[in-house]
Design a protein that fits this description.
- By secondary structure, this protein is an alpha/beta fold.
- It has two domains: about 230 residues, 3-Layer(aba) Sandwich (Rossmann fold), CATH 3.40.50.2000; about 160 residues, Rossmann fold (3-Layer(aba) Sandwich).
- It is about 45% helix and about 15% strand.
- It contains 17 helices and 13 strands.
- It has a seven-stranded parallel beta sheet with strand order 3-2-1-4-5-6-7, sandwiched between helices.
- β4, α5 and β5 form a beta-alpha-beta unit.
- α10 crosses α15.
- It is globular.
């Protein structure tokens, strides 16, 4: 195909909160960057409502949305359950599964199969549903896998104490079998780091040669140093899915408890803990309720202010396929302490302090080091800021994504039977 021709792109995302969660942030920013390169972009999404710029059309597929925080696990009407896909979704959730990747893919296939002439390529954002496999037989199709969910499953199962809870976790992640099968059938996979490629290739049994590595960008219009706000001594920020074992907040809380015994310390967690969940119980057990504050959901402007007030950011994750929180803090000139879990060293590089994952003592040592040496902290903040602007922009991500699209389109056309 013509190298610089305008592409008609259909992005698919089964769950897409543009303000939190890596997948939603990815869709919001990559769609904008692709559009800015001159391509036509349309998004087919699941819940919640995805509100983007007016020049990027969004079509939300109807579904039961049984995880809606306003009415979670509601009982659907008989009329709703008369739809076979809705029935599958309800049965899946009712039996402690997570059917959304599967049901979204089926709905996407039903919606798109008569509209395929409107697009040059379909780009799936990690649903890896059988519906995506069916579409890939009809139109050039590519998928992004941010990291292998097999890692989430392993850590979630390991973190549970009882056999029943371990079985519940295994049931939740039962969609993984489908994702592995579908992933192996696609011509090309986009992933966000070398670490993620190695892990996905191993766990999904996909050859290395099928991957295009496209590092995420950081939205430097949203995350930037805020002048006129004084950093507060001994104030630490963490962006975290509080009760997700993969994110490692429990290890940071243990480190905070150790520090609180020798000096004043304040930890600000962007987000909310699960009511009566493991994190709330751990905070009470460690007697650090006065040291830990949860912000709940905040606006982008408030987010930047929270970074500006903080003396450092900590990323305690056991594993990250990329590590947006590290890059966002670096973009705000906040010094970063990060674990070496997954791809985090690829993001932080030599501009931050790296410690082993699941190690409260190592976090304690690194945090106290920066608290005792503010000059080093300032130097790290400047280095991180420069690293983000040199390596992690959404424009670069979009350019690499377009190159992967063109390769998939050319391969698809080459393998089609000759027309009479």
């Amino acid at each position: 195909m013509i190298k610089n021709s305008r592409l008609r792109i259909c992005l698919l995302s089964y769950r897409s909160n543009p303000h939190s969660g890596g997948q939603g942030v990815y869709i919001k920013n990559i769609s904008r960057a692709l559009k800015d390169l001159g391509h036509d972009v349309e998004i087919i999404s699941g819940p919640p409502d995805l509100v983007l710029d007016p020049d990027i059309p969004v079509h939300r597929l109807p579904c039961l949305d049984l995880y809606d925080p306003k009415d979670p696990f509601r009982v659907p009407s008989l009329k709703e359950l008369a739809n076979p896909v809705n029935l599958i979704e309800w049965i899946g959730v009712s039996t402690m599964g997570f059917p959304e990747p599967f049901t979204f893919g089926v709905r996407a296939y039903q919606y798109l199969r008569k509209r395929l002439n409107q697009y040059d390529i379909i780009h799936d954002n990690q649903s890896l549903s059988y519906g995506i496999w069916a579409l890939s037989k009809l139109i050039p199709t590519i998928a992004t896998i941010h990291h292998p969910i097999t890692v989430d499953r392993k850590i979630a199962v390991r973190s549970e104490s009882s056999i029943l809870l371990k079985l519940k976790s295994l049931r939740w992640f039962s969609f993984l079998s489908m994702q592995k099968q579908v992933g192996r059938t696609l011509r090309r996979i986009i992933t966000v780091s070398n670490s993620a490629r190695e892990d996905i290739s191993r766990d999904f049994k996909i050859p290395d040669k099928k991957f295009s590595i496209v590092p995420n960008g950081i939205n430097t219009k949203q995350f930037y140093p805020l002048e006129g706000v004084k950093r507060e001594k001994n104030r630490i920020i963490v962006t975290n899915s509080a009760d997700t074992a993969l994110k490692g907040l429990n290890y940071l809380l243990h480190a905070i408890a150790m520090i609180s015994k020798i000096r004043e310390i304040k930890l600000v967690v962007i987000g909310s803990p699960q009511k009566n969940g493991a994190i709330e119980k751990l905070i009470k057990k460690l007697s650090i309720s006065k040291q830990v504050t949860f912000t709940g959901r905040i606006t982008d402007d408030e987010f930047v202010i929270q970074y500006a007030k903080s003396s450092m950011a900590v990323v305690p994750s056991v594993y990250e396929g990329f590590g947006l929180p590290a890059g966002e803090a670096m973009a705000c000139k906040v010094p970063v302490i990060s674990t070496t879990g997954g791809a985090l060293p690829e993001v932080v590089g030599d501009s931050g302090i790296l410690v082993p994952p699941a190690n409260p003592k190592a976090l304690f040592t690194a945090i106290t080091l920066l608290l005792d040496h503010p000059e080093k902290a300032r130097s790290m903040g400047k280095a991180g800021y420069q690293r983000v602007h040199d390596h992690f922009t959404w424009e670069k991500a979009a350019e690499l994504t377009i190159a992967a699209y063109r390769e998939v389109i050319d391969d698809y056309r080459r393998l089609q039977p000759a027309q009479d």
